[in-house]
Amino acid sequence: ATAGAYVASKGNPNLTWESTTSTNFALDMGFMDNKLQATIDVFKNETTGLVAQDTQKISTTAIDAGAPYTNLGSMESTGFDLSLDYTDATTSGLNYSIGAEITKASNEVTELISEFYAGYSDRIGSMTRTSVGEPISYFYGRNVVGIFESAADIAGHAQQDGAGIGRFKYEDVNGDGVINDGDRTKIGDPHPDLLFGLNVTLQKGPWDFSMFWNGSIGNEIFDYTALYYESPYFFNGNRSTVVLDSWTPTNTDTDMPALSETTLNNEFTSANSFFVRDGSYVRLRSLQIGYTLSDTLASKIGAKSARVYYNGRNLLTLTDFRGLDPEVPRSGALDIGVYNRQYPTYKMSSIGINVKF
Fold first, then answer.
1. Which of 117, 13, 116 is nearest to 68 (CA)?
2. Closest by alpha carbon to 196, among 288, 280, 115, 302?
3. In terms of domains, do 251 and 281 share one?
4. Do residue 263 and residue 306 come from a single domain?
């Protein structure tokens, strides 16, 4: 065996802890002899000394060492949490409880030590940006406004390098008649409009049942993974079946560019809105069904009590996201919502028994 060490990122002796000042107003309520309980919490969080890797500072201390962590600026987040819980029992002996939670929050960067910060960057350049007045880590790139249908369509559009029939048409954001880096703009937001959860428990006689759903609405995902499995010409390897819907003169109602043997128009070599997808989802996070044996049956195995159960996790996901998983793990403050070949959430089923002797 060979031991070794390397510098993962350059240090910063001036780095300090983040500081957050929270203001909350909460109200707890009970109705119907407290069978129905509600809690609402309105909050405002002000964070200073926001910590993230400063991608504008390249390490000179080691080859391939990561950028140093720095206090980049300040951020404000506001929103509310609402929870409702109802617990009751029927005359037939069914005990049940239903709980729901909703969170609505938004954030805005209020101060930066630089004009902006580029976030996650890879083969297609930087995909996220953070700037004052915007939410942290919004998606940034060229905005696709269609696909060129004809030579006349190309001639009537702003000058665009690599323009061709069946290729992406980019928005001339600054109106100067030329598509260039000055036309990159905000193309998406990874932050959800709403987070929610639903919990249900039932119990009658020896049977019990519980399930928990959660999800988000309104968030977007930058599906960098599509660079590999949706590209009509980029890299070797398998492709998604969506490329079968690529643009042709007889198939113009599609968002997929034409198939090509060459790399044209930078569709898949520069960040653009094609990669931005709706990340809303609903997921059955957990489900459990149990049966408690009678004392007579339990005693036959020498136990005081016994319960057998089935437990399932992530059994069902409802989403329009065509990538592998709408739940994108977060690896840093400046690359929120970038899906880059992370291992997807897995389904799991198990059967077990709880025994007391």
1. 13
2. 280
3. no
4. no
Phi, psi of 213 (to 5 degrees): -110, 145
Of the two residues 51 and 219, the one the predictor is more confident about is: 219
pLDDT, residue 234, reads 57
Does 209 lie in the same domain as 105? yes
Residue 208 within a domain: yes
Write the DSSP string, 176-223. Answer: SSB-SGGG-EEEE--S-SEEEEEEEEEEETTEEEEEEEEEEES-EEEE
Higher per-residue confidence, 7 vs 24: 24
CA angle 96, 100, 105 (to 5 degrees): 170
**What is the overall mean pLDDT for the chain?**
90
What percentage of the chain reaches a pLDDT higher than 70? 91
Residue 241 phi, psi dihedral angles, 5° rounding: -65, -10
Number of domains in the chain: 2
**Which pTM value belongs to this model?**
0.88
pLDDT at 260: 80
Q: How confident is the model at residue 338 (pLDDT cuts 50, 70, 90)?
A: very high
Task: Tell me the Cα Rg of the chain.
Answer: 26
Q: How confident is the model at residue 340 (pLDDT cuts 50, 70, 90)?
A: confident
With cut-offs at 50, 70 and 90, classify the pLDDT of residue 124: confident
Which token pair is 293? Answer: 């044996």
Q: Do 106 and 248 belong to one domain?
A: no
Same domain, 197 and 311: yes
Please indicate, yes or no, whether residues 26 and 57 belong to a single structural domain of this protein: yes
Tallying the residues shown for the chain, one arrives at 357
CA 327 to CA 192: how far, in whole Å? 12
Contacts of 51 (CB under 8 A, 6+ apart): 15, 17, 18, 69, 70, 71, 72, 333
Residue 246 is part of which domain span?
A: 143-180+232-267
What single-letter DSSP state applies at residue 345?
P
One DSSP character per residue, 91-145 reads: TTS-EEEEEEEEEEEEEEEEEESSSEEE--EETTEE-EEEETTS-TTEEEEBPEE
CA dist list (Å): 240 to 112, 128, 228: 40, 25, 9
In a domain, 32, yes or no: yes
